[in-house]
Amino acid sequence: MKSLALVVLLCLGCGLMSSSFVLASPHMWSKLILTQHWPSTFCSMEHCDPKFDYWTLHGLWPDKGQECNSSWHFNVTLIQDLLPDMQKWWPDLITPASSEFWQYEWQKHGTCAAKAESLNSQHKYFGKALELYHTLDLDGVMKKFNIVPSETYYTFDHIEGIILNFYSVKPKIQCIHPKGGKVQILGQIEICFNSDFQLANCEHSETDTLRLIDFLNVKGTEFSVCDHATPVYYPPLKGKPSM
């Protein structure tokens, strides 16, 4: 009997260890990062023609896990009803007629986000990203508080302060840093949500720069967290007068 009890206890212990391992999996996320980029800055690096004079979606990224299910292939027919919104608000800035960008975002980030029941299909994932994007209305908030594309430089603290005060959470703001260091160019803004889709503070980590080099579109692009002391250039759309 004692031997049998020992075996049972060992089995229970193994089960608990197995459960702990699953819970500790790097694919289990606790935060979503809604990332938007400024087309003029992006296209200045990637040599594309920016046709959008508003902040467009880059992606909805879980804070842990990448390419969680390589067998879960992207199928554009599953999001047909979302395509008009996708093309307008979440475009591939280099090849707007392509769905390759969305395919990549689904494979790399969507299959990880799908660990949550609320995001466990392509339609749920892309639909929720669009919903959060419209709810935030980052472009509208920036304009409301007179943060507009301009040849006049802004301070980083001014831009961050506007976003922080409006949403009551800390964003992560990224720039590119031309050689010389006299100015940095505003390029990308992250705003974070918890697993219940409530706003949450974004946190900086050592992997940020690696994560920002995301998708073929931004191969070689080096966004990094903006420097607090360096003036920020928010470039107008090419051919469009600054406001």
UniProtKB/TrEMBL annotation:
Location of the active site: H58, E105, H109
**Pfam families from the UniProt entry:** Ribonuclease_T2 (PF00445)
Give an example GO molecular function: hydrolase activity
Database matches in CDD domains: RNase_T2_euk
Query: Where in the cell is the protein located?
Result: Endoplasmic reticulum lumen; Lysosome lumen; Secreted
Which keywords accompany this UniProt record? Disulfide bond, Endonuclease, Endoplasmic reticulum, Glycoprotein, Hydrolase, Lyase, Lysosome, Nuclease, Secreted, Signal
GO cellular component terms?
Answer: endoplasmic reticulum lumen; extracellular region; lysosomal lumen
Supply one GO BP term.
Answer: RNA catabolic process
Q: Where is the signal peptide?
A: 1-24
The UniProt catalytic activity note for this protein reads:
a guanylyl-uridine-RNA = a 3'-end 2',3'-cyclophospho-GMP-RNA + a 5'-end dephospho-uridine-RNA; an adenylyl-uridine-RNA = a 3'-end 2',3'-cyclophospho-AMP-RNA + a 5'-end dephospho-uridine-RNA
**PANTHER family in the record, alphabetically?**
RIBONUCLEASE T2
Q: Which family does it belong to?
A: Belongs to the RNase T2 family.
In Swiss-Prot or TrEMBL terms, this protein is called Ribonuclease T2
Organism (species): Oncorhynchus mykiss (Rainbow trout)
Top-level taxonomy: Eukaryota, Metazoa, Chordata, Craniata, Vertebrata
